[in-house]
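Worked Example 4.2. Read the sequence first, then its structure tokens.
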Amino acid sequence: MTTPANPQTALERAESLILEVPDYPSSGILFRDITPLLGDAAAFRATVDALIAPFEGQFDVVAGLEARGFLFASAAAYASGAGLMPVRKAGKLPRPAAKVDYALEYGVAVVEAHNDFPRGSRVLVIDDVLATGGTLVAAHALMAELGYEVAGTSVLFEIEDLGGRAALNDPQLHTVFHS
């Protein structure tokens, strides 16, 4: 594969690789398939770099939200030399230290995390999509409960008309792509 000449070109390519799949996983949903982006090394690298760039030197840990947020958070932690914290759905961790409930359109969900880092650790929270904001709001509450400082929030793709930015109310929110 040819490597683009500059990062902006790689980011433009990355955005073009996010496919829209109508009616998945259910009718009326427009799913963003990031698999082609992950398969393009230059686009993936540019995307990870763009996720962490505004926060360089300001975090010790990258928290990735289950499930696709793990993919970007892992790469971001490696690229920045930071630790990695998985934020999982309820029942997926062997020793959760804290959990937070949050509302979904169809019920309630729970996210959990370990307390493997010192209190006061600066955490960059990363997820793939910001839609209504519920998962990210819960992740922020979880970080506070664990005694960590949220250094910022970085998201691959924001669906602007679903109100997630307002729900999250994070002045440090950074999104790479928007709808």
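Now turn to a second chain, presented in exactly the same format:
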Amino acid sequence: MQIIKPKEFFRNLPSKQCPECGTHINEQVESYLMECDHCLSKRDE
């Protein structure tokens, strides 16, 4: 079993994608949102 360093593990994760429109989401620290800002603003209307 190969041990991977934590930094390397997180660096290799794929970027988060909005399930509504498919755009890539720029993640912020401690952000658990799944939709992008555009889709979230449409939801509030």
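Notes for the reader: The two ends are 50 Å apart (CA to CA). Helices lie at 6-11, 37-43.
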